[in-house]
Amino acid sequence: MSLVPLAVLALGAVADGAGTVATGGTDAAGGPAPATVPSSFAWTGPYIGGHVAERLALADDTLSAPAPARSTDALGSLFGGVQLGYNLQLPSRVLVGIEGDISFPYFVQDGVVMSRGAPQGSVTEKLDFLSTLRARVGYAWGRWLTYGTGGLTWSQVRLSETPGLLGGTGAALRWPIGWTVGAGAELALSRAWSLKGEYLFAHVGDVSGGLAPGTGFASSIDSHTLQLGLNWHFRMPGESAAPGTSTIDAWPFRSDAWNLHGQATVVEQGYFSFRSPYEGPNSLSGNTQFQDTVSATAFLGVRAWAGAEAYFNPEVDQGYGLSHALGVAAFPNGEAQKASYPVPRLNVDRLMIRQTFGLGGEQEVVRDGPNELPGRRDVSRVTVTAGRLSVGDAFGRNTYADDPRTGFMNWNLYGSGSYDWTMDQPGFTWGGLVELNEKRWALRVGYFLEPTHSNGNTFDLDIPTRGQYLAEPELRYAVLSQPGVLRVMGWVTRASMGSYAEAVAMPLSTAGYPDITRTREVRATYGVVVNVEQALSRDLGVFSRASWTPGLVEVMGWTECDESVSLGAVLSGTVWRRPDDRVGLAGVIEGLSASAREYFAAGGLGVLIGDGRLTYRPEQVLEAYYAVSLSRWATLTLDFQYVDNPAYNADRGPVPIYAGRLHVEL
Q: What domains appear along the chain, each with residue ranges and CATH number?
């Protein structure tokens, strides 16, 4: 798995320079001058990059159970991954090269090519990943390259049977080898960057396997792919242009009109066995366990037109949270998604556009960073953002507890406790917000889609009748010359939700009692979050959040919590001459409403919790971490959490949880 974060980080390695690779100073009017570039683009050398692709995989399947039945099945899905290669440009402008890549499917489709019924249950065929090793032959002129390509493919195909078991494991893996051919074109964007588009046809290969006794399976998979990629070409100081290339007048995009950054985060977290007299379907296991999660993200930004910025954040994730992210309402790992992946999966975190309308007056500098294009903007402004994003990008933020990749890892320390954050399983939704910013205050309002059902990955498109509405005024102030911020967020959700009370009121003979899914109908709920941060000195700051919701209906996206209070502090290491190190200490106490307590005591299940019974006590979590700055781009964190009454259950726990986290951001 280490290939994925390393490759994405290498792709972002020159992000800090993406805005400066071809600057041209200023023109006579004082504005940016047209970019000037070397006389030609040198294609020769190694490169590394990332890509997204729309792939149609066609499988000719034969399921013998025992009589053979043949069908043709299709997977149409977004894929994404990384590539690396080497080019050699000859004096004749002919280019020869070699490239290898690996692609992973979008998490929603999960690579499923086929799912069919069988006498023993159902049989599913998944394409876990697809990789190629290809030769490239092309012709280069100016900043353009056109090429043909062909070579070998290698993939992992997963056959699974439900409820039967394959060889006692429930899954059989195959690694077919096939071939691929295609063609593409590549455009140099700057001295180091190029954009490519290509079509590939691949015969993935033939797959066969024995399932239950008397049942067999065979398939032949082909795929058609349209792929868009971005490559970074390694350059040596003083490198000259390739022979035989023509003069380039200017790069296609101004260097300050786009940027690229990357991040990778690896978390290893676990605990030793703890008191657990009983367990339910959603319990934190009482046995010793250690789990890891890995994420790698690219942050691509483009200045679309005056005042408008577009951002695209593809991400590859792999791993599991403790007990598959179950058993603790204030879950201890913010990198652990409710969608767990045994093999890497692609997610599109953000695909959004941001339009800023300046209102004049004082300006401020915007520094280059992830989802931030460098430049200047008015302090007084109106900003409109729309697309796929996280509600937490704008609402409920706090300087001292905001990002589980760099600070507190616990959900309800960096999150807002009882606020039911609308999201799919990876944590994102679709919607928009408007923000009015002034020097001493701000006001933001937003509307976001809700899942069609609790903890779902599809969204209810009954707009605007259903969805989530938020409003958050923000006040900036100073106490003894130290800055502070107060935010008060109110939210209203209208969606198809089940009722705790109605589920409990069902007859005890009801299948799956208490089955809250049987009570789902369009309902409304609401809540409030008070969020404060205060600097005590240049190196020390404190924060607190208090939240409440009535807790009458099931949670749609976040976690089971109806009231919470958190308090914490973060100290930088200036005193011990490590100014970039940080120490954090915080705690959160949270509880359930009376209706929720009754439901979980009756054996109900939620998004994160459900022990089958409940001896209620408030859940309490203490977290402490030390983040060691290894360099300006890498941080290693040691983290400890103590969870008392996990899932609000006094019969189980307490649980000391230990973690190590490596975060790299470029």
A: 36-253 (2.40.160.20), 259-665 (2.40.160.180)
